[in-house]
Inverse folding.
């Protein structure tokens, strides 16, 4: 398996993602600078990590969505390559139009940093197949703008088409319909606010995130 | 020409900052304040001298970058 982690100015989970992928899958992980215009060949997974790309200027993810590397990522997504956006990466994917909706300021106005219990709503995706019958998993969130928003029609469609992949059991940020993670209609682009990259070994409090990377490995 | 863009969350999108400010205004003794909305203003110089063309150009900037039209509306002034 080959993976790439995109590094934006202000990313702060890029090395966590690299370590998580390497330790859970043994994959070869390249770090790709946001100013690059091409990606390594033969990738199975592209990760947009968490952080505060471009200092969250204008809107979270708005500037990163215009980065030179995003054109290459859109092309790869169009070819069916797996793309995972975690936290700020989820915000970037929404801003780039690769996922529907947007992330608003948390309903409680506070930055939320806590462990969250999640429902794996759809374990039929390339990102979640290894969860199989495990519905109840634990990861952590750390965000100020993780409140997923989309219009009612879009939310109905996401639910109807099985595009809601993770749901909060106890919604920490006001997300519409308790949504914690969604895939695009083709199922190869996943955006999620919880961090699988912070939950890949028991020493971190949970190893449930490892199954996500191992799912991608199995599909590679 | 000077372009000014006002960006606000769309009606119906919860503006939590506006809500917090509204609460604070009530606490300060301004009970008449309601429906507080927080937005941003972006202003910049723009080359050219055709206001109609400038407005079209700035609207394109709004659609592509300055506003996220999933959640935000915008208003353009050319002056």
């Amino acid at each position: 398996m080959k993976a790439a982690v995109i590094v934006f100015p202000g990313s702060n989970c890029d090395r966590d993602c690299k370590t998580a992928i390497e330790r859970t899958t043994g994959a070869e992980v390249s770090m790709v600078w946001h100013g690059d215009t091409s990606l390594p060949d033969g990738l199975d997974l592209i990760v947009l990590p968490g952080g505060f790309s471009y200092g969250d200027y204008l809107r979270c993810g708005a500037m990163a969505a215009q980065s030179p590397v995003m054109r290459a990522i859109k092309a790869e997504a169009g070819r069916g390559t797996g793309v995972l956006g975690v936290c700020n990466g989820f915000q970037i994917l929404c801003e780039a139009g690769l996922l529907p909706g947007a992330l608003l300021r948390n309903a409680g106005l506070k930055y939320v940093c806590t462990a969250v219990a999640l429902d794996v709503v759809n374990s039929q995706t390339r990102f979640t197949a290894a969860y199989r019958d495990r519905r109840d998993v634990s990861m952590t969130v750390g965000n100020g703008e993780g409140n997923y928003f989309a219009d009612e029609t879009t939310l109905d469609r996401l639910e109807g088409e099985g595009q809601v992949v993770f749901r909060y059991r106890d919604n920490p940020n006001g997300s519409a319909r308790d949504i914690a993670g969604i895939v695009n209609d083709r199922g190869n682009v996943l955006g999620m606010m919880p961090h699988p990259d912070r939950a890949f070994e028991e020493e971190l409090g949970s190893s449930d995130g490892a199954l996500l990377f191992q799912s991608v490995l199995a599909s590679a | 020409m000077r372009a000014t863009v006002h960006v606000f969350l769309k009606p119906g999108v919860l503006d939590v900052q506006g809500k917090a400010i509204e609460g604070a205004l009530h606490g300060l003794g301004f009970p008449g304040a309601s429906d507080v909305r927080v937005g941003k203003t972006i202003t910049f110089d723009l080359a050219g001298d055709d206001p109609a063309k400038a407005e079209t150009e700035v609207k394109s900037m709004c659609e592509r970058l300055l506003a996220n039209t999933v959640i935000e509306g915008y208003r353009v002034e050319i002056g």
Q: What stands out?
A: Chain A has one domain: 2-219. Chain A has a mean pLDDT of 97. The longest strand of chain A covers residues 112-120.
